[in-house]
Amino acid sequence: MSARIELRTAPHVKGRRTVEKIMQQVVFSLLPICLFFIYQYGISAAALIIVVTASCLATERLFVRQGGQAGDVSDWSATITGILLALSLPPGFPLWMGAVAGIVAIAIGKSLFGGIGRNVFNPALVGRAFVQAAFPTAIASYTPSFLPGRFSEFIPSSLALPFMQPASTEAWIKAMPIDALTSATPLAKWKFDGIVAGADELLTSLAGHMAVGPSPLLILICGAYLASRRYLDWRIPVSILGAAGITALALYGFDPVRYPNPFFMLLSGGLVLGAVYMATDMATSPVTPKGMWVYGALIGVLTVVIRYYSGLPEGVMYAILIANAASPLIEKITQPTPFGRGRGGRVRRATYPLHPSYISREEDGASAPKKLFKPKVKS
């Protein structure tokens, strides 16, 4: 009798998850955040999300058809890039500039490196960094939330013609029949005017007539859903928010007059959105557990340092991009010790059982025996 041997390449234990399923779940978790953003700013926010996402999808389609990158439009990755990029921009950002941001995000942030899974930097942040440098005035122009008529008229700057100066929104805001309106973000008001918004106002973003983004509480809830389904690793957002909070608390304790309280630092700006959805990008973050803690701590500390000591009120974008660049080094220095090898070449025993639940503990389809035993050998 002849024996048949079947040879297969790793991985030998596979789960039911696919890239498309993971990306699809991330998009679904972003839908409540998008709806809340539209509820805050009306049709201008809706148009911005649609235009930016469409430009990302069109650019992705172009490069895939030309064979310049791996992946496909149906894998949902370009959709995630477009949504996150739109949520990071001011709601009245000119639509043609938003389209440019989407094109740059995919073309330079993703396709230049070979497509999905090969990018070094988060594509959405690459697109935002480009428009930050190219259109500094427009990206710094915010409008208050929950304005009357937001579902019946656009913010004037949204409909600016390509290569034309966007219309000023100051006169439009002053004409509103509401007192005490401000178009400055809470971070800008603290940075340049010394005014600190309350944590209760920032947590839900429901205070009204403030230039704020989506609710941090809602983002945390949606992120908790993804973490519970193991579509993102909880270590990264926890380490980011923890490091930022500890750094802000230390500085606040040193000089409470000069530095704001840590709750303001955590809930203002795009820190929560960046920690939950942008820093957790699988292609640009470390895969080792220790590396995730180091990576997240680096982002949290850099965010606070940039906000406090630079000329910019926000620092999440640059902190994540810097950490993306450092991710390969972080992975290298946080590699786990191989089994049987210790410091100085000494033999080291494994401290945990080697069975399928450890090898593929993150997969749905993997299962382990309830009891490990060695069969008795009869003499």
Structure description:
- There is one protein chain.
- Residues 350-374 have low confidence and may be disordered.
- Helix 1 (19-41) packs antiparallel against helix 10 (216-228) and helix 11 runs parallel beside helix 14.
- The longest helix has 23 residues, at 19-41.
- Helices cover 51% and strands 0% of the residues.
- The chain has 16 helices and no strands.
- With 379 residues, it is mainly α.
- It is globular and about 90 Å long.
Structural class: mainly alpha
Q: Which regions have little confidence, pLDDT < 50, spanning 5+ residues?
A: 350-374
Average pLDDT, all residues: 84
Number of strands: 0
Strand content: under 5%
Order of helices and strands: HHHHHHHHHHHHHHHH
Principal-axes geometry comes out as globular
The helicity comes to: 40-55%
C-alpha end-to-end distance: 29 Å
- Note the main sheet: none
Radius of gyration, rounded?
24 Å
SS summary, helix count: 16
Provide a short characterization of the protein structure.
The protein is mainly α and 379 residues long. The protein has helices spanning 19-41, 43-65, 77-87, 95-107, 123-134, 136-139, 170-174, 186-193, 199-204, 216-228, 235-254, 262-267, 271-278, 289-309, 316-333, 356-359.
Question: Which keywords apply here?
Answer:
single chain; 379 residues; mainly alpha
List the helices and strands and how they pair.
Blueprint lengths: L18 H23 L1 H23 L11 H11 L7 H13 L15 H12 L1 H4 L30 H5 L11 H8 L5 H6 L11 H13 L6 H20 L7 H6 L3 H8 L10 H21 L6 H18 L22 H4 L20
Helix pairs in contact: 1-2, 1-3, 1-10, 2-3, 2-4, 3-4, 3-5, 4-5, 5-15, 10-13, 11-13, 11-14, 14-15
